[in-house]
Design a protein that fits this description.
Layout: H1 9-22, E1 39-42, E2 45-49, H2 62-75, H3 91-102, E3 106-109, H4 112-123, E4 129-133, H5 138-144, E5 154-157, H6 162-172, E6 179-184, H7 196-205, E7 209-214, H8 229-234, E8 241-246, E9 256-260, H9 263-272, H10 274-278, H11 284-297, H12 301-321, E10 335-341, H13 343-356, E11 358-359, E12 361-363, E13 373-378, H14 385-405, H15 410-416, E14 436-440, H16 448-452, H17 463-472, E15 484-491, E16 497-509, H18 516-526, E17 534-540, E18 550-552, H19 559-576, E19 581-588, H20 592-600, E20 604-607, E21 611-614, H21 622-627, H22 631-640, E22 648-653, H23 658-674, H24 685-690, E23 697-704, E24 718-724, E25 729-737, H25 739-745, H26 747-762, E26 766-771, H27 774-779, E27 783-785, E28 787-793, H28 797-804
Parallel strand pairs: 2-11, 4-5, 4-6, 6-7, 7-8, 17-19, 25-26
Antiparallel strand pairs: 1-2, 3-9, 8-9, 10-13, 12-13, 14-15, 15-16, 16-17, 16-18, 19-28, 20-28, 21-26, 21-27, 22-23, 23-24, 24-25
Helix pairs in contact: 2-11, 3-11, 4-5, 4-9, 12-14, 13-14
GO molecular function, one term: transaminase activity
InterPro entries: Acyl_CoA_acyltransferase, Aminotrans_II_pyridoxalP_BS, Aminotransferase_I/II_large, AON_synthase_class-II, PyrdxlP-dep_Trfase, PyrdxlP-dep_Trfase_major, PyrdxlP-dep_Trfase_small
Cofactor: pyridoxal 5'-phosphate
């Protein structure tokens, strides 16, 4: 099978960030002539600034500014030399002050990203294993990719899931020297904190367990001498904890720090940490500003600043308690997150708040799951209490307005974040009175005329084909072989069909569209855990059908309303079936209207394998068939197909014995076991057995003629399982091959040509050749159609875990 075109994670992020930019909430520029910290000027408007990470406001402290200016005048703008050779004169003074703060060795780096890149590959040895918290900062995760080529396993657990963590520690306990768990002290999106007390217990319980903490968002506003949230809980830094913090953000200067109690580790990282050894050092003004800030941190003044900020945080929490705003986590951190659910609602609310005079950040995918979009705002010493009250009042007014415009209810947001529901459990979604949604759980109860005239004319999902699928995927032993079906038709007041589609809810392999190398590794784990990384998915169409699964009349002015009506119904199906994801497929890649609509509803676009269709069957001979192809394809077909045609006997069968069926299933399994590019569960034997009971299905069997077949037992070398629907669409659904004979006789290509000849004989108007192998199918005249799906997951964990597996470690 040819490789499919896999989704690129960065392409998805680019789509969402570009949308955010177009909506006016990303990639903005300030226009201030000078900063005070309280306000920023954007798009000609002075906005109260609730987006800073300088929580103590030290970046505006006159002492830091004066020190930086004097350093520039005395030493210049930079000291361009690696610290391995010579450090700038003020470095030793800064390091001495930081040592006094932390009471441990401190290394200074250019920034936290470079610090992680220096420290992690140095302290994690080849005999270790790493466990990432799902929400640990991207800079930590990026640094860990450097470990994989060395053969160091990098695993992931759900956010702050200590049961899962302890299971991993036990799993790895006898295999590795150390188990490193990498976390944030304060998580930058939701503002929640690491469970330090519980982690301390695990540090004592398991000798091999070690902790690596990024506490850049906990710095300065907490802890003795402002040494951060984590140390405020630990008291003393244990030997098995490495702490990375910052000289920027709340510290007010620039740079990052690594602190550990083990002097030998500090020495080793200083000598061998790549960016620490070979990158340029901090500029003189940054070192001077950091030194001035360290002097403040070592004085009692830091506690006055901490208390001032704490008072404002407490005030903000008190205001929020008197509202119904969905605050995701309440604590004494300066980071707050108000859920909006969909990105479109977040864009709307962010713009509304800017129009009211308040700048806030938007938390959006990939920092949070798509349906966990929200307004992230921060409190700093620059903010006055009247500013905070003004912001909360503005959100109280505009949050429900933004929800109302999106037909989104407060409880839907609360469900997305697992928050307590408000009052009566109702969706509160306005349904356009002029549209009627018809829903059925079996094709038997669907309006036959409406279905046949809309979606039913496509692919294998005419009424007969769907009844077949319902029969196959019911009352089976394995969970993956039992699907629930839901059919939807939306009509207007004149009973005209605007929309028709069907969904199945079934168990999917989460790596279905991942690179084959990733699926191969995951399948090894499934030898002991059959359902590792699998999820229930409510998906448009089914795992066996392909084609246009959505009929939508875009000539109707209400087509978008019809889609909103459909999605509201699908979400209820998702909840009923406890599905973790909704997948909408198969859409043409260049349909901008569909893309814009689904992205506004919180779906992300992913690429699917290309669809392959032959629509030109107006030929009567092989010579005429060749004339429909390109010159290059004609040569290929002559060489690889016509040359071998005389070796084959072909039989189209509708009645087959149990023995024949068993062998056909074996041929299909040959193909399935090799195809990790589209990794799904193997279909049950019942699928093939039931083909004998439903008209439209055929077994297209290829054999090598006896005089050319030197095998003792002469069996078929290929079988195609095809479906001819009521509207003369011929569907190549599945294929089975004998790979031992395939190369010698070009069996795969011959099967394609036999399939086309049979479609021609039946009077087919179109042939659907299925997904993938597009290079081969193009040779036969197939039109290649790039396809995409739109995905909305409740939780990013499984998707990101699989994404983290895309860099394959070397074997030890």
């Amino acid at each position: 099978m040819a490789k499919i075109r896999h989704n690129k994670f960065l392409d998805t992020v680019d789509e969402i960030f570009s949308d955010a930019k177009n909506k006016g909430v990303f990639h903005l520029y300030t226009e201030d002539e000078a900063y005070t910290g309280r306000k920023v000027r954007i798009k000609g408007k002075d906005l109260f600034h609730f987006g800073t990470t300088g929580y103590l406001g030290l970046e505006q402290d006159p002492r830091l500014k004066k020190s930086a200016i004097e350093a520039i005048l005395r030493y210049g703008t930079q000291f361009p030399l690696s610290k391995t050779y010579v450090s700038f004169v003020l470095y030793s003074d800064l390091e001495e002050h930081l040592h006094r703060m932390y009471q441990n060795p401190v290394l200074v780096a250019k920034n936290s990203t470079l610090c992680h890149l220096a420290v992690i590959p140095s302290v994690v040895r080849d005999e270790d294993v790493v466990i990432l918290d799902h929400q640990v900062h991207n800079s930590v995760q990026s640094a860990c990719t450097m470990l994989k080529p060395r053969g160091i396993p990098v695993d992931m657990i759900k956010h702050s899931n200590l049961n899962m963590l302890e299971d991993k520690i036990k799993e790895y306990g006898n295999k590795y020297r150390k188990v490193w768990y990498m976390i944030d002290g304060v998580y930058s999106m939701f503002g929640d904190v690491a469970p330090i007390e519980e982690l301390t217990y695990l540090l004592k319980k398991y000798p091999l367990f070690n902790l690596y903490v990024d506490d850049v968002h906990g710095m300065s506003w907490a802890g003795k001498h402002g040494t951060g949230y984590v140390l405020s809980k630990l008291g003393k830094l244990p030997d098995k904890v490495i702490l990375v913090s910052t000289l920027s953000k709340s510290f007010g200067a620039s740079g990052a720090t690594m602190i550990c109690a083990d002097k030998e580790i500090s020495r080793y990282v200083k000598n061998f940490g790549g960016p620490l050894s070979f990158s340029a050092q901090l500029e003189p003004p940054s070192v001077a500003a950091a030194l001035a800030s360290a002097q403040i941190h070592l004085s009692d003044e830091i506690y006055e600043m901490q208390n001032e900020l704490k008072d404002k945080i407490t005030y903000c929490n008190a205001l929020l308690k008197n509202t119904t705003l969905p605050l995701i986590d309440e604590n004494l951190c300066p980071v707050f997150f108000i859920g909006t659910g969909l990105p479109a609602i977040g864009f709307n609310l962010a713009n509304r708040l800017m129009n009211e005079g308040y700048y806030v950040n938007l938390g959006v995918f990939p920092a949070v799951p798509v349906k966990n979009t929200g307004i992230r705002f921060t409190i700093s010493r620059h903010n006055k209490k009247e500013d905070i009250k003004g912001l909360i009042d503005a959100m109280v007014y505009h949050h429900p307005k933004a929800l109302e415009e999106a037909n989104y209810s407060p409880n839907r947001i609360r469900r997305s974040f697992n928050l307590p529901l408000m009052g009566e459990d109702r969706e509160g979604v306005k349904i356009p009175s002029s549209l009627v949604l018809e829903h059925a759980a079996t094709i038997d109860n669907v309006d036959p005329v409406a279905w046949d005239n809309s979606l039913g004319k496509n692919s294998s999902f005419d009424r007969r084909g769907l009844k077949f699928f319902e029969d196959v995927f019911a009352n089976n032993d394995k969970p993956e072989d039992n699907w629930s079906f839901d059919y939807f038709i939306v009509k207007d007041t004149s009973a005209k069909v605007i929309l028709a589609t069907y969904f199945t809810t079934s168990l999917w392999k989460d790596d279905m569209l991942s690179p084959a190398s990733v699926s191969i590794d995951i399948e090894l784990k499934r030898t002991t855990d059959s359902y590792y990384l699998t999820s229930r998915v409510t998906g448009m169409g089914s795992l066996i059908s392909e084609g246009d699964h959505l009929y939508i009349d875009k000539n109707s002015p209400q087509w978008k309303e019809a889609l909103v009506l459909l999605l509201n119904a699908v979400y209820k199906i998702q909840e009923k079936n406890n599905a973790t994801m909704v997948v909408l497929r198969d859409f043409e890649e260049d349909d901008q209207e569909i893309k814009d609509f689904f992205q506004s509803q919180g779906f992300i676009k992913i690429h699917l394998p290309e669809s392959c269709v032959i629509e030109d069957l107006n030929w009567e001979s092989k010579e005429e068939f060749l004339q429909t192809l390109s010159a290059n394809s004609r040569a290929k077909i002559k060489k690889d197909v016509f040359k071998y045609e005389h070796f084959f006997d072909v039989e189209i069968k509708h009645v087959v014995s149990e023995e024949e069926l068993a062998y056909y299933y074996q041929l299909f399994s040959n193909v399935k076991s090799r195809n990790f590019d589209l990794n799904s569960f193997t279909y049950p034997k019942k699928l093939f057995s039931n083909m004998r009971n439903y008209s439209g299905w055929e077994f297209m069997v290829l054999k090598i003629k006896p005089e050319f077949d030197d095998r003792a037992v002469k069996k078929p070398v290929a079988v195609a399982f095809n479906y001819f629907n009521d509207t003369k669409i011929y569907n190549a659904v599945l294929i089975g091959l004998d790979y031992e004979m395939s190369e010698q006789f070009q069996v795969y290509r011959q099967a394609f040509f036999v399939l086309l000849k049979n479609a021609k004989k039946l009077g087919a108007k179109r042939v659907n050749l299925g997904f993938s192998a597009s290079i081969e199918k193009r040779k036969f005249g197939a039109r290649i159609i790039p396809k995409v799906a739109y995905v909305q997951a409740k939780d990013n964990f499984n998707l990101e875990l699989i994404e983290s597996m895309s860099i394959k470690p070397h074997s030890k």
